Amino acid sequence: MSRNRFVVCYDVRDPTRLRRTHQAMLGYGDPLQYSVFLCELSRAERVLMEMALRRVVALREDSVIVIDLGPARGVAAKRIVQLGVGRVPRPERGVIV
To answer: How far, in Å, CA of 38 to CA of 73, rounded?
Structure first.
């Protein structure tokens, strides 16, 4: 199954929807900042994530941006540079022996 790396950013105006959006995104990726997530998703997982977001955000008031960085095992891992405090999470990969 092919997985791509995505950056998902959102601007949600209502505090209740903002908390619900953050909670929904925790099931799909790692927060880089409160409203910015790094996700590694298959096509099906991306569809499920977008469906979950549509149930929470008000599309006439809020904004969600999904940026596809490409294949997770390719150059996508090198496309994010962090300056300052914090670190970009690296998904742990299991090793089959």
So the answer is: 14
